Amino acid sequence: MKLEITRSLLTQIHAHGESAYPEEGAGFLLGAVDEDVRRVTAILTLPNAREDEARHNRYLLTPQDVMRAEDEAESRGLALIGVFHSHPDCPNTPSEFDRDWAMPWFSYIITRVDAGRAVGSRSWRLTHDRSRFEEEIVHVLADR
Fold this sequence. Notes:
Blueprint: E1 2-6, H1 7-20, E2 26-34, E3 37-46, H2 63-75, E4 79-88, H3 96-101, E5 107-114, E6 117-126, E7 133-141
Parallel strand pairs: 1-3, 1-7, 4-5
Antiparallel strand pairs: 2-3, 2-4, 5-6, 6-7
């Protein structure tokens, strides 16, 4: 399993996580799937719809957000291939909450944001039996 993303898109994901700090920031990954390679070619940042007191360690993307992302992907000839979100002052590994809400067909980029600064991103896929996440190799590509 491999995920490809350009440096500029990853920079945008980091900037979104930093701007949401100390809350979690989130959005969608748009692109294409070719066997075991997922190519992110666009992102859609969204506000965290979770109630105020939970935003520091939870994010919520509403059904309307998903519909908007699917429409946006379709209009660009792309597919909705995943979700990204930040973990403020926490490791960029999936939580049990992340596992409870994840879909096995999506990639999940998690960015660690320490003291307001993005320090790294990792990508994960939920196994089909929903028992655990497996880490995807992230290839950061030069911008064209």
